[in-house]
Amino acid sequence: MPSLPPAVAEIRLAARTALAGLSDRVTVVVALSGGADSLALAAATAFEARSRGMQVCSATIDHGLQDGSADAAATAAAKADALGIRARVERVQVALESAAVPVAGGASTDSENAVVRFAGGTEAAARDARYTALRRIAREEQAAAVLLGHTLDDQAETVLLGLARGAGAASLQGMAPRREDEDGTVWLRPMLGVRRVTTEAFCAASDLEPWHDPHNREHRFARVRVRESVLPVLEAELGPGIAEALARTAEQLREDTEAFDEMIHETIEDIVEHAEAGISVSVPALAANPPALRNRIIRLVAQSEFGASLSRTQTLEVARLVTDWSGQGPIDLPGCSAARRGGRLVFTAR
What we know:
Blueprint: H1 6-19, E1 27-31, H2 36-50, E2 55-62, H3 69-82, E3 86-91, E4 93-97, E5 108-110, E6 115-119, H4 122-141, E7 145-147, H5 152-165, H6 169-172, E8 178-180, E9 186-188, H7 196-205, H8 222-238, H9 242-271, E10 272-275, E11 278-282, H10 283-288, H11 291-306, H12 312-323, E12 331-333, E13 336-341, E14 344-349
Parallel strand pairs: 1-2, 1-7, 2-3, 4-6, 7-9
Antiparallel strand pairs: 5-6, 8-9, 10-11, 11-14, 12-13, 13-14
Helix pairs in contact: 1-2, 1-7, 2-7, 5-8, 5-9, 11-12
């Protein structure tokens, strides 16, 4: 009996490990673009799901952003069908809005025409539209999880992009292997430990012809520039293993963040109170905490209560109301304001 090609064995193991956390005979959705990463994941998931009595549905999202996108989506669906996977194709029109649309507000959706409007550039708008469609498909299919084909290379690129934005540990921790949204949608990324070259080898060994997205060669996209210019230079100048090192960094930061989050929620229970039109935090309790914990509490309060994502500069200005207060007035923040009132730091909706 011929041995299993290493690439096939590696990705099947990744899929099996991810599915192990789910019950037998459930339905899972695999996001399928038709590229090597998602095609390998779909094939491996279909193979591993059979012995568990699971149903696999592929979801191909046609953004309509390039000529021939409908044909590419139909081809991806045909490949899923050949693998024994029930295929769905969803067309989503991505309309970029002006900067007047609040980014923090997310998306506005015209469900009848499947038009999703987001503020931001093409990359961000397409990504948000895709996840909105996948979330809806998962709900309609009553799926236990949505599987995404992100690889170790994607993780390394995400960490570098987060580093360039200077957004701190929250962005440097990259993509989580498992995430559950507030609406109950579970997202699984089985291949965050798998290199992109392995997915290509899987397809070659399985006689699967992947689709090559033309957008993956367009340097107007930041991620493409990182993939084709930045990472190769780092590998050439600093030696091999950069992508793996970045992925390890993301994993370690996620562990740190989980520990911090647990500490924060325990602390918040004791120091936060509801106030009129807002929420207040004990100044002495905040001052007694180290800066890292204090700043995270401030960001979490603004995010959870008002949907506001504070920059580091904004966070530090709010912290000065605690540690360096000399009578300064309220600080305007996205969606809210912060003010010192006696021994309380009060956040109020704007």
